[in-house]
Design brief:
The complex is a heterodimer of chains A (161) and B (499).
Chain A lengths: L4 H20 L4 H35 L20 H21 L1 H16 L4 H21 L15
Chain B lengths: L1 H11 L2 H19 L4 H9 L8 H13 L1 H12 L8 H12 L3 H26 L3 H7 L2 H12 L1 H5 L4 H15 L2 E2 L6 E2 L13 H19 L15 H13 L1 H16 L4 H16 L11 H24 L6 H12 L6 H6 L1 H30 L6 H20 L2 H19 L5 H24 L7 H31 L2
Antiparallel strand pairs in B: 1-2
Helix pairs in contact in B: 1-19, 2-3, 2-4, 2-5, 2-19, 3-4, 3-17, 4-17, 4-19, 5-6, 5-7, 5-19, 6-7, 6-16, 7-13, 7-14, 7-16, 7-19, 9-22, 9-23, 11-22, 12-20, 12-21, 13-14, 14-15, 14-16, 15-16, 16-17, 20-21
Classes of the chains: A mainly alpha (161), B mainly alpha (499).
C-alpha cells in the first residue's frame, strides 16, 4: 500500500490524540475528566478514519485505476490542487514570513517581506512594489501605531518603532 | 411604556446624538473589519473617552459602536476568508465560496441587509422582552446552559456532511485545543509543557487566523502568481448587491427566525455570539429545502448567520441592563461603562429610567441601519479585490492577519501558533477535513467544561433529568439522527447518480 499524504495527515490526528491522552493521564480526576473524554473519543474516531483511508487506498491500488465499486468505502475527494511545486513554494514563503516576524519584528518584516514576495514570487514591476510596500507600511503605522497607540512586536532584535 | 418609547426616541433624534451615532458606527465598522480587533477591543479603547460625558451620549457612543462591529466584520470574511470578529467565522462557510464563484456582491448585499434587519429585530425583541425577562433568565441555570452547548455541538455533523468522521475529528481537535492552559477549576496546567505563555490558553484569533486566513493565502499562492480568489475575470456588478439584498426579503421567514433565535441566545449569559451564529447556521441547514449547497456558497447560509450576528447584541443587552449580568465579553465592558457613567443596571433601572432603556433600543436600531447603508457604496469597490492577482493580494492580507494575531497578546509565541494552525488548516483544506467544526469545538469546549463542572457540583449527574435539560437532550438526539440520516441519504444519492 502506498503511503499517501492523506494517510499521513490522518496519522497526525491519531498522534495528536495519543499524545493528548498520555499527558492527561498525569492530572487529577477533575482536571482530566473533560480532556480525556475528548482524546479517547478522538482516538476512536481517528483510528477508525485511518483504517477507512487505508482500506480505501488499498482498494484503489488493487483496482489499478478502475472506478471504485459502489460498496467500497468512499473518502471525500480532495479538490483539484495546485502543482506540488508551487504549493511547497508558498508554504515556504509563509514559513519565511513568520521567521522574519520573530527575528525582525513587524516594522522591518512588512518592508522586507512585501518587497521580496512581490519581486521574486510575483515578478511585479518595481514601481508597484514600491507603492505597495510604502502604502502597507503607512497604513499599519497610521492605523495602528498612531491611531490606536498599539505597540507592534519588535522581534528578537527588538526593532520597535 | 408608550410614553417612555417616545421619550427615548426624542432623546435620540438630536443633532448631537445622531452625530455620535455616525462617528461610532464608522469606528465600529473599522474595528470589525480589521481581523484581530473586534468590538471588545474597540470598547476597551473607547471607554476612557466617555469619562466626563453625559450618560446618554456616552452610552450612545459605546453601544452604537459595539452593536455594528459584526456588520463590518463580515466583509473580510466574505472576501478573503479572514473573519474580522469571532462570530463572523460562520459567515465564511458560505460567504467565501460565493466570492470564489464570482457572487461576492450577492453575499455582501445579503450580509448588509441581514445585519441591519437582524440588529433591528434584536432591538425590537429586547424592547418586547424587558417586562417578561425575569422568568426566562431564571429558568436557565448551569445544567440548561450545558445542554444548550451540547446541542450546539451536534452542528458538527451538519457542518461536515462530506465526511462525518473527519468533521468529528476536527471538532475534537478544536475541543482539545480549547483545554490548553490552566484549568480554571483545579489550577492544573493542561498541555502547557512548562511554557508560561500557554497558561492563558490559546486565543481564538490564533486558531481562526491560522486555519482560515493563512490557509487560504497558501492556497491562493499555490495557484501561482496569477492566481486570484474568484474564478474567472468577472467584475463585481452593483446588481449583485441588490440581488443579495432582495434575497434577505424573499427569505423573510428564515431571516425572522434566525434573528429571533439569535436574540434569545444572546440573552443567555456566557454563550456569546459565536454560539448564536453557529446554531442559526445549523438551523438554516436543517430547515431549508435543497440544503445540499450549504457550505458551497448558499446565500441562505449568509442570511441566517448575519441576522443572528447582529440580533444577538439586543439579546445580550437584556441581562446586562436588567440584572447586571453581562451577556457577552463586550457587554461586561459595557457594564463597566454604565457604572462609570453613573448608571446602575438592575431592576431599579427599569422602574426609574425606562426612557433610557428605550433610548438604547433606538440607538441600536439607527446604528444598525446606518452602518449597513454606509457600507453599501464601499463594499462594491471592496468586492473587486477578489479579482486581484494573488501576488498583489497576499502581502497586505498576510501583514494584516499577522498584525491582528500579534495584537492579542504581543507575544512571538502566538506567531508560532498561527503558523502551526495555518499549515494545519491548509492540510485540512487539502485532505477534505471541514474546518468550521474545529472552530466550533474550540469555542464551545471551555464553556461546556465549565458548565459541566458547575452542573455536577450543584446537582450531580441527575442534572440531566431537569425538564429543560430533558427537552434539550431530546432535541440533541433528534438533531443528530436527522443529520446523520440526511448525510447518508445524500451520499447514497451521489453514488446512484454516479452509476
Amino acid at each position: 500500500m502506498n503511503i499517501k499524504g492523506r494517510t499521513l495527515f490522518d496519522m497526525l490526528f491519531v498522534l495528536i490524540f495519543a499524545v493528548g491522552f498520555y499527558f492527561s493521564a498525569k492530572w487529577n480526576m477533575k482536571a482530566r475528566l473533560f480532556p480525556q473524554l475528548i482524546v479517547l473519543s478522538g482516538l476512536v474516531v481517528s483510528i477508525h478514519n485511518l483504517i477507512k483511508t487505508a482500506i480505501s487506498n488499498r482498494a484503489r491500488d488493487n483496482d489499478d485505476g478502475k472506478p471504485m465499486q459502489s460498496g467500497a468505502v468512499t473518502v471525500p475527494s480532495a479538490r483539484p490542487t495546485a502543482a506540488p511545486k508551487s504549493e511547497w513554494t508558498m508554504i515556504l514563503w509563509v514559513g519565511i514570513y513568520f521567521c522574519m516576524i520573530i527575528l525582525f519584528g513587524f516594522w522591518v518584516t512588512i518592508i522586507l517581506y512585501t518587497v521580496f514576495f512581490m519581486s521574486i514570487f510575483g515578478r511585479e514591476n518595481w514601481k508597484i512594489v514600491t507603492i505597495y510596500t510604502v502604502g502597507i507600511w503607512l497604513l499599519i503605522y497610521f492605523g495602528l501605531s498612531v491611531g490606536m497607540s498599539a505597540s507592534l512586536y519588535g522581534g528578537v532584535l527588538g526593532l520597535t518603532w | 411604556m408608550i410614553e417612555a418609547m417616545w421619550s427615548g426616541l426624542h432623546q435620540v433624534f438630536t443633532l448631537k446624538i445622531l452625530g455620535i451615532i455616525v462617528i461610532a458606527t464608522s469606528i465600529g465598522n473599522f474595528f470589525g473589519a480589521v481581523p484581530g480587533l473586534g468590538g471588545t477591543i474597540a470598547l476597551a479603547l473607547l471607554i476612557p473617552f466617555v469619562y466626563g460625558m453625559d450618560p446618554f451620549p456616552g452610552l450612545t457612543l459605546l453601544l452604537a459602536m459595539h452593536s455594528v462591529t459584526s456588520t463590518g466584520g463580515s466583509i473580510p470574511g466574505i472576501l478573503f476568508a479572514i473573519p474580522g470578529t469571532g462570530p463572523t467565522v460562520a459567515t465564511i462557510v458560505d460567504g467565501y465560496p460565493m466570492t470564489k464563484k464570482g457572487l461576492g456582491g450577492q453575499a455582501m448585499g445579503a450580509q448588509l441587509a441581514a445585519s441591519a434587519i437582524g440588529g433591528v429585530i434584536g432591538a425590537g425583541v429586547l424592547a418586547l422582552l424587558i417586562p417578561v425577562l425575569r422568568p426566562i433568565a431564571i429558568a436557565f441555570g448551569s445544567p440548561e446552559v450545558f445542554m444548550l452547548i451540547v446541542f450546539g455541538l451536534t452542528f458538527v455533523i451538519i457542518l461536515s456532511r462530506e465526511s462525518i468522521s473527519r468533521g468529528f475529528m476536527a471538532a475534537l481537535l478544536g475541543l482539545l485545543l480549547g483545554t490548553v492552559g490552566l484549568d480554571p477549576h483545579t489550577g492544573v496546567g493542561r498541555y502547557t509543557f512548562g511554557q508560561l505563555w500557554l497558561w492563558d490558553g490559546i486565543h481564538l484569533a490564533s486558531v481562526v487566523l491560522g486555519i482560515f486566513a493563512f490557509a487560504e493565502m497558501i492556497d491562493l499562492g499555490a495557484k501561482g502568481r496569477g492566481g486570484q480568489i474568484a474564478e474567472g475575470n468577472v467584475k463585481m456588478p452593483w446588481y449583485q448587491l441588490w440581488e443579495g439584498t432582495v434575497a434577505v426579503f424573499t427569505n423573510w421567514w428564515l431571516s425572522l427566525r434566525t434573528a429571533v433565535i439569535g436574540t434569545f441566545i444572546g440573552i443567555i449569559p456566557g454563550l456569546g455570539g459565536d454560539v448564536a451564529t453557529w446554531i442559526c447556521y445549523g438551523h438554516a441547514v436543517q430547515t431549508c429545502k435543497n440544503s445540499e449547497n450549504f457550505g458551497k456558497g448558499d446565500i441562505r447560509g449568509v442570511i441566517a448567520v448575519e441576522t443572528a450576528n447582529n440580533s444577538k447584541e439586543g439579546g445580550a443587552l437584556l441581562p446586562t441592563i436588567v440584572f447586571g449580568i453581562p451577556g457577552s465579553g463586550g457587554m461586561a465592558l459595557l457594564l463597566g461603562a454604565f457604572l462609570i457613567l453613573g448608571i446602575t443596571p438592575g431592576p431599579q433601572l427599569i422602574a426609574t429610567h425606562l426612557d433610557l432603556i428605550w433610548g438604547m433600543v433606538w440607538v441600536m436600531v439607527i446604528a444598525n441601519i446606518f452602518a449597513a447603508v454606509t457600507l453599501y457604496p464601499l463594499c462594491g469597490h471592496m468586492g473587486k479585490l477578489a479579482f486581484i492577482r494573488g501576488s498583489l493580494l497576499i502581502p497586505p492580507i498576510m501583514v494584516l492577519a499577522g498584525v491582528g494575531a500579534s495584537l492579542i497578546r504581543g507575544q512571538w509565541q502566538d506567531m508560532v501558533l498561527v503558523a502551526f494552525t495555518g499549515f494545519l488548516g491548509y492540510g485540512m483544506k487539502k485532505w477534505g477535513y471541514p474546518r468550521p467544526p474545529m472552530v466550533l469545538g474550540f469555542i464551545l469546549g471551555p464553556l461546556a467544561e465549565d458548565y459541566l463542572h458547575k452542573s455536577l457540583a450543584e446537582w450531580g449527574l441527575p442534572f440531566l433529568l431537569r425538564p429543560v435539560c430533558v427537552t434539550l437532550l431530546i432535541f440533541t438526539v433528534l438533531s443528530l439522527v436527522y443529520s446523520i440520516y440526511h448525510a447518508h441519504r445524500d451520499k447514497k444519492k451521489k453514488l446512484m447518480e454516479g452509476g
